[in-house]
């Protein structure tokens, strides 16, 4: 793959010409046109993203069902999350997505330094997001709100003792807050894992962009990574209201 | 002039085997900026709405705003608005399939205690 990308190498040009035309990374010889290759790439990326929708969809479905079953536990547990950190993180991710979109434009316009700057900004904002996320996780760890043997329900059976204005839950319902926190960690954890993978890919893209791979009309890796990064954005756009917002005013 | 020739004349693109692929459409930074500002505004709106007691409408409003944001991201940031029909249809079919699976699974949960509420 690397050799095909170094199109300025005369040896590669010669190898490409054996098939009757110059083989560019954005137009490999088994594609009729540049547009056809581009569309095939987008199509494949979207098929992958559809499997991701199914994957995250399963967790959203579990959230829907359990929220209906254990509504009081979900409302109280959800209200222990910090809306300000959640909102800030949402803004950070949207900004990161904006930088990624500009990066795709920069690659299309063959602006190497702008592309590099935008990819780095995207990475930086992603890292800050994960920083806030881990501080939230650490708070839950200190409060013993991570599901398992060390889970502590006393904040939910005796909220007044912790200065929290919530109705106390009966002990069996208070145990169900573990279901909320399990889904919270599973959903935000899988989202964070996708971001960590994305940050790894961003480093790879920065390295290649710096080498000039994406400044001569070859945009596919940047564009398809953009789709992935925006998909992560989309997942968070649903996680944010579901986990942080919709239980502020429990139905009575 | 034969009927076929007239038909072809009316659809010059039919001679182009590549016409089914969408031409490359480059979204401009100005468009991305508008999308960005709308997304930020909607995030502020959904956050503010969560602090007003609207009974059952809180969840509906929050999810409606989230869906609006997602559609905007998919159409413009992810360029679906400018893709070929093949890709649009594939995405639509995939999302529809997801909704079918959610609905079919929900029928089980809804009908388990049928008549006992």
Question: How does the overall form of chain A come out from the CA principal axes?
Answer: elongated
Radius of gyration of chain A: 23 Å
Number of helices of chain A: 10
Order of helix and strand elements from N to C terminus of chain B: HHHH
Distance between the termini of chain B: 73 Å
* Percent of sequence in beta strands of chain A: under 5%
CATH topology of the largest domain in chain A: Four Helix Bundle (Hemerythrin (Met), subunit A)
Mean pLDDT of chain A: 91
What structural category do the secondary elements of chain A indicate? mainly alpha
The stretches of 5 or more residues of chain B where confidence is low (pLDDT under 50) are: 1-19
Largest sheet of chain A: none
The outline of chain B comes out as flat
Specify the CATH architecture of the largest domain in chain A. Answer: Up-down Bundle
Quaternary status: heterodimer
Proportion of residues in helical segments of chain A: over 70%
Kindly report the name of the CATH homologous superfamily of the largest domain in chain A: Cytochrome c oxidase, subunit III, four-helix bundle
| Separation of the first and last Cα atoms of chain A | 61 Å
Brief digest:
The complex is a heterodimer of chains A (about 250) and B (about 120). With about 250 residues, chain A is an all-alpha fold.
Provide structural commentary.
The complex is a heterodimer of chains A (252) and B (117). Chain A has 252 residues and is an all-alpha fold. Chain A folds into two domains: 1-30, no CATH class; 41-245, Four Helix Bundle (Hemerythrin (Met), subunit A) (Up-down Bundle), CATH 1.20.120. Helices cover 73% and strands 0% of the residues of chain A. Chain A is built from ten helices and no strands. In chain A, helix 3 (34-69) runs parallel beside helix 10. Chain A starts with a helix and ends in a 7-residue tail after the last helix. In chain B, helix 2 runs antiparallel to helix 3. Chain B has two domains: 26-82; 83-117. Helices cover 67% and strands 0% of the residues of chain B. Chain B has helices spanning 3-10, 29-50, 57-77, 85-111.
């Amino acid at each position: 793959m690397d050799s095909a990308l170094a199109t300025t190498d005369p040896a590669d040009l010669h190898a490409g010409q054996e098939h009757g035309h110059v083989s560019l990374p954005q137009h490999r010889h088994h594609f009729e046109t540049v547009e056809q290759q581009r569309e095939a790439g987008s199509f494949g990326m979207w098929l992958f993203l559809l499997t991701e929708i199914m994957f995250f969809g399963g967790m959203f479905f579990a959230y829907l069902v359990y929220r209906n079953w254990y509504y009081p536990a979900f409302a109280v547990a959800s209200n222990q999350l910090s809306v300000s950190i959640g909102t800030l993180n949402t803004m950070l991710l949207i900004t990161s997505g904006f930088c990624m979109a500009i990066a795709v434009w920069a690659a299309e316009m063959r602006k190497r330094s702008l592309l590099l700057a935008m990819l780095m900004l995207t990475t930086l904002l992603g890292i800050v997001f994960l920083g806030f996320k881990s501080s939230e996780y650490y708070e839950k760890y200190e409060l013993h709100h991570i599901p398992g043997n060390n889970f502590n329900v006393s904040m939910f059976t005796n909220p007044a003792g912790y200065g929290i204005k919530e109705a106390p839950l009966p002990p069996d319902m208070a145990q169900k807050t573990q279901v909320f926190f399990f889904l919270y960690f599973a959903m935000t954890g899988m989202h964070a894992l996708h971001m960590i993978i994305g940050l790894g890919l961003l480093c790879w893209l920065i390295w290649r962009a710096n080498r000039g791979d994406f400044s001569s009309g070859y945009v596919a890796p940047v564009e398809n990574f953009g789709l992935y990064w925006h998909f992560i954005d989309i997942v968070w756009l649903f996680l944010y209201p579901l986990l942080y917002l919709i239980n502020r005013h429990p139905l009575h | 002039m034969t009927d076929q020739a007239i038909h072809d004349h009316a659809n010059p693109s039919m001679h182009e085997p590549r016409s089914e692929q969408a031409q490359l459409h480059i979204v401009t930074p100005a468009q991305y900026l508008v999308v960005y500002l709308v997304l930020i505004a909607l995030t502020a709106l959904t956050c503010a709405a969560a602090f007003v007691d609207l009974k059952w409408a809180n969840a509906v409003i929050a999810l409606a705003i989230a869906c609006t944001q997602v559609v905007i991201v998919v159409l413009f940031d992810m360029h679906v608005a400018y893709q070929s029909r093949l890709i649009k249809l594939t995405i639509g079919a995939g999302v529809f399939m997801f909704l079918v699976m959610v609905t079919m699974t929900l029928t089980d949960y809804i009908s388990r205690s049928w008549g006992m509420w």
